[in-house]
Amino acid sequence: MPSPAGKISINDLRAEKGGDPDHYKHLLSCADPCDTSPTVVDEALALDAKRRSKLSELEDMRSKLSTLQKTVIAPKKKAGLDCDEDIAKMKGWKADIDRLSTELKVAEKERDGSLKKISDALATIDVNSDGVSAGCRSESGESPKKGPQSPAGPALQKDSPKKQTKSDSSTDETSLPLLQPEKIKQIPPERILNLNVGVLGHVDTGKTSLVKTLSSVLSTASLDKSKQSRARGITLDLGFSAFLLPLPEHLRKETMVRQEVSTGKSDATKKPKNAWNIEKVQKKETETELQQRYDLLQVTLVDCPGHASLIRTIIGGAQIIDMVLLVVDATKGIQTQTAECLVIAEMTTRNLIVVLNKIDLFPANEREERLRQAEKKMRNALRGTKFENAQMVGISACVGGEKVAAVGQDAAACVISSTNNIHGLLNVLQSQMRAPNRDTQPSPERFHFAVDHCFPIKGQGTVLTGTCLSGSARPNDLVEFPTLATQKKIKGLQMFRRKANVIQQGDRAGICVSNFDAKLMERGIVAAPGTVRLIRGAIAVVRKAGFSKGGVNSGAKFHISVGHTTVMATVTFWGAREIARQAEEHLAAQQQSVVENGESHGKSSLGGSADLAGLPRLRFDWDQDFLHQDNYLDSLPDDTDWGGRSSHQPVGKQSEEMPLHWARIEFLTPVYCPMDSLVIGSRLDSEVNANACRLAFSGRLVERYDAKSDNGRLRSYTKKEKVGTVCRLGDPYKRGDDGKIVRYEVFGTDLFKKETNMTQFVGLLIETDAGDVGIIQSSFGTSGKFRVSFPAGTEVREGDPLYLRFKRYANDPRKAIRQDGSVPAARTGSRVDPPAKKKKGNRGGKGGGNKAKSGGAASSSSHVVRPPNGTGARPGTGDACDSEVTGEIAKLKDGPTEGGRPTVAIASGLFSMEDDIGKHRGRRVVALSTDEEGAVDGSFGKMGKCKVLFKGGVSAEVGSKLKMMPR
């Protein structure tokens, strides 16, 4: 309640706003029972009801006038239609609006006059330390009424400890154990460790009331001080306030990785043998550092709006915090904006406390059980997030209902109602605090400052309030406003209205500069000169938000938030398979580095910490190939090739979190931000009232990207596959290493059209279902058939499929065919002779009988052939072969001799396609079945066949064996 000299607010009298009109009536009546002054409370409430009625009528009239102008008059004027009647109606409504405005001012004046009467009357009342008028005590000295603190009480409940009866369960038994600003004025601000705690939650869950209850130091932007916030009764902008505590003991011993570990201080220079030793060293270093650098702990509360339409402000506020108080209405549980705030917290912080507010609305006899049920439901909602084991505490920040927090411009004007279990919340908060990851050696060259408010102070200059994200700054340092392309010198620094000589990472501060128009900048960045550049696009490591439903499509437009800036951008996703392997290697290397050196990476330079969002620091390789993706992959499939067989072990373990992706972010409006910043992608154009999370993904900016110059550098490809059929097999061979019957040469069809130019496909790899790899040697005939050589052999059969698999790059103007892999090593084998065909009829002579005698059995040649080499050479004698080679008669030609026998036999198997048969002209050839001799007379076709001339004729039939003798 306000002090007697303070101005009372109408909300102190309105029961629906948490006020207690009966209490004020009682105080006024106790002052003078014969006085009729208590009726002034009813008078004030009636006048306020009249004022609110006039205000509602005025707003309705303005809305109707706006609708008439936009939907009726403007379209008619544009269409050239008559709208005189509508204009006359508009003028009449404007007159009504003027009248209502005048009446509203009169009503406000009458109400304020009534409130002044109450304030003046209360100023004359003698109030004791319990906040009860002395005239209202009974003879026994007991107060006849227990209720909220009276107007004559202290300005803040925590400023004046008071004892309360245990029967009053709705209030704390003692005041809050917070240090007051006047008690620590002798301590320099740089000796105070600042922790930023974000207060997030759904609208109307009591966030601002909680902040009001805890805060003892207020900034120029705190507790809904804007007129619009007070008029609408909700938080519309970020609010900043703070309270101070002694530095908790566990923070002095907090385990953190510090740069001192690797710079050679104390025993930390010794390389620890395992992770336990690292922890031991880190504890020692941290304890020493915190004790030397800090004396007190300041908790800065960042009060974020809860309304769905203010999600941009929530995202900006959440990116400057160290931990989160997630405020939940215990009677309603998790709501839409609660889920969105939970997603934001996962992206921006490692620590969260769930505050179940409004437990006073539970009946006293059911409160414990109802609170336990609320905790259980919230625990189920947290399952699958990194806050599964988050601490929960039930409180009532304002027993009896919410109150408008800001009724003045300083802490003395703030009214605190009764609370429940605030001490329990403070105990949990202190136990869960962790030492922040701050720069151990902040440098002015890395100074980045996120500005959230900007306003002028007459005679001083312009003040920029915000949070130092990295580096440090001092008075007289030169800073740059990147968005305005201007530089200013720092005139002075303040931290919560206290002069500071230096600010560093994590500090909430105000920067005063001169000759700067505050209207030019509401929010943005102030940085060391030249450290923040304008970017039009970037490549980022991204991960989809856990609560995001539906697909995240490549090429779609998203709202991208970087710090306090939100712009539209087109986003394309790719590389899920490739980045998974890279992330695994990075994690292993990072763990090894920590084990060996005790090093870890620090905080991101803008917009929260991408490390806390689970986004590793990866390097983008412009020369790496990436398989094309149409959209974001919610789960990472097994790494398989075209044929469905696993070509690698599954990449990583399949966890509940979404897989990492590379993303190309092309900003529609260029932004100023450094690399390594955290970005958050959202669908803010979605329906506000839809029960869906609008947060889509988080990301870390890795590399600048310019669509004009860098688009052709990205090596994104799609897999292509053409399927042919084996139409003919080459000669069979028995492979030497496993004894299998294989073919080193096969012929295929159905892969190319008749008119296809085969030159571009010669040398490409062909695969079979069994995984055998061959190489295209040439075309075969003129009907689109082709010849394939398998250096290691294949067991493929006629009719089996042959696969031509290749890559095609999206940015390749030639659309060239590219393949990975190589021809396998050659595996030798010996040729297997097929069985000779039986003689259908005796064509005369002794030779026929001999042919028939040997025709029923299969024989195998004993010579060993050379397997094809890497170029696909077919097994054969070769030009340098001087040993005996066996072939067979494929065809008989020319007319019979005098004896009735053909003189020319077409032989196969004696040469390969690569052999120069002309060099072997005249070599002696013997028909094994008839012992008839002939000589090589030249080649026949292009398949390695040759003509053998038998001058005396040959009686052997087709299929009979031939032996080519050595030279």
TrEMBL record:
Key words, A-Z: Coiled coil
Domain Tr-type G residues, every copy: 192-445
UniProt-listed GO biological process terms: selenocysteine incorporation
Bias (Low complexity) ranges: 851-862
Stretch list, region Disordered: 130-183, 815-882
Compartment(s) where it occurs, according to its Swiss-Prot or TrEMBL record: Plastid, Chloroplast
CDD domains: eSelB_III, SelB_euk, SelB_II
Molecular function terms from GO: GTP binding; GTPase activity; translation elongation factor activity
GO CC field: chloroplast
Listed name of the protein: Elongation factor Tu, chloroplastic
Organism: Thalassiosira oceanica (Marine diatom)
